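Lab meeting, item 3. Inverse folding demo.
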């Protein structure tokens, strides 16, 4: 008899062992892969030339840009943005589901009261009070609860990710307002020059010193620039509305947004690469917690095939009046029960296999997220270098273009060049200035993207 019980115990321990080996390897392997990827990324970054930038190492995404006016938009967005509020509610739901899972480990108490009247007999009343408790011998219920806790961590990471993206989008929206304002200013200055040229050409034409082609060309350039000014005015208004949309406050007037004419300084996230790594990325945390949650559910699915143990105790009373039935002279019963699934058509085994495959699927989802994260960092680093070079070349080009404009204006007044030559160099100068503004804007945007890629965020 002792040998038989020992054999059964070994079989049960073997089943528990099957349920706890294999799935945990996915989490370990994922952690190892992340460490290797981060180390390789840091080595590649250290080989790149140091970027122009700050002496201050940013720790949060909002540290990249120092604009006090942004704080009001960030505060309003964190309080009112509908998408962020949905993520907050999702996290609260996950907390509630965790409470349900934890409650399954506790004893349950149920009370009942009923009355019955049969023809030819007196009325009878029954009352009962039952306590039942499933003993978590194999820690199956604990695994389910632990999986729910991991789900909470997943939703917390999702909320952090949503908060980081919202802060980054507010910063992008601010920069979009700034670039649209600067481009509008460039076109308005271009328009003033073209209008002055048109007036000058008209005066020359009226005194017979110019041609009709010169006058038509001047009018064409002026009208075209007026159309561009109208376009940039609407683009600026739309960017203001988009920024207000992120805050969740559509009733605020668009004109309340005052953006500086120059770009704010945005720090280089690479300055914090020595202390910042990809482990701070919420999407990686979310994917890793998913692996752990599915591993725990796999353990619980295998343990569902083991015998379960439960205890119950009840008080019952029956009387002819309701007051006497309320446990005036109750009878108690106690029951210990063991049950084991013998045949369910392979349902439990299929559930365990599904859980194990889901764990593997979450591992590969993590791998995809990790590869994407590394790729985003490398692309953003490459863009920082390329945009810096473009910015430098465009600055040199703009300096030359401005000198050329001054030279051609002097030659035009002396009659050495015609109006077509002057308009050409003026147009080139404004085009280069607009291109430099756009390149600077793209570089600042890229720094925000790089900060997100490295894992910089905000305090949720």
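The presenter then showed the designed sequence:
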């Amino acid at each position: 008899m002792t040998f038989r019980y020992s054999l059964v115990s070994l079989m049960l321990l073997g089943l528990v062992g099957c349920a706890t080996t294999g799935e945990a390897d996915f989490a370990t392997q994922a952690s190892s892969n992340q460490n290797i990827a981060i180390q390789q990324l840091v080595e590649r970054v250290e080989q790149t030339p140091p970027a122009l930038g700050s002496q201050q190492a940013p720790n949060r995404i909002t540290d990249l840009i120092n604009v006090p006016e942004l704080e009001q938009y960030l505060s309003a967005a964190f309080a009112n943005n509908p998408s962020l509020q949905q993520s907050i509610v999702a996290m609260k739901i996950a907390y509630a589901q965790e409470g349900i899972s934890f409650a399954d480990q506790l004893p349950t108490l149920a009370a009942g009261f009923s009355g019955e009247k049969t023809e030819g007999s007196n009325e009878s009343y029954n009352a009962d009070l039952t306590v039942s408790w499933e003993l978590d011998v194999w820690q199956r219920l604990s695994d389910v609860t632990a999986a729910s806790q991991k789900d909470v961590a997943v939703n917390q990471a999702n909320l952090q990710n949503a908060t980081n993206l919202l802060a980054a989008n507010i910063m992008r929206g601010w920069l979009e307002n700034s670039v649209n304002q600067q481009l509008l200013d460039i076109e308005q200055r271009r328009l003033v020059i073209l209008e002055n040229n048109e007036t000058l050409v008209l005066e020359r034409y009226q005194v017979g010193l110019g041609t009709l082609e010169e006058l038509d060309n001047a009018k064409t350039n002026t009208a075209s620039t007026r159309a561009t000014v109208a376009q940039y005015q609407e683009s600026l208004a739309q960017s203001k509305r988009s920024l207000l949309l992120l805050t969740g406050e559509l009733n605020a007037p668009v004109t309340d947004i005052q953006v500086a004419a120059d770009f704010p300084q945005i720090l280089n996230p690479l300055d914090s690469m020595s202390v910042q790594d990809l482990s701070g990325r919420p999407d990686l945390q979310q994917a890793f917690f998913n692996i752990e949650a599915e591993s725990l559910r796999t353990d619980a699915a295998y343990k569902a095939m083991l015998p379960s143990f439960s205890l119950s105790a009840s008080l019952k009373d029956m009387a002819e009046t309701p007051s006497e039935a309320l446990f005036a002279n109750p009878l108690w019963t106690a029951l210990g029960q063991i049950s084991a699934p013998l045949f369910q058509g392979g349902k439990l085994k299929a559930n365990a296999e599904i859980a194990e495959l889901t764990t593997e699927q979450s591992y590969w989802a993590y791998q995809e997220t990790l590869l994407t994260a590394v790729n985003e960092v490398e692309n953003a680093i490459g863009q920082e270098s390329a945009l810096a070079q473009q910015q430098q070349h465009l600055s040199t080009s703009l300096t030359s273009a401005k000198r050329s404009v001054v030279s051609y204006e002097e030659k035009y007044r002396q009659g050495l060049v015609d109006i077509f030559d002057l308009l050409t160099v003026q147009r080139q100068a404004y085009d280069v200035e607009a291109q430099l503004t756009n390149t600077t804007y793209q570089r600042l945007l890229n720094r925000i993207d790089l900060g997100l890629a490295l894992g910089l965020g905000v305090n949720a």
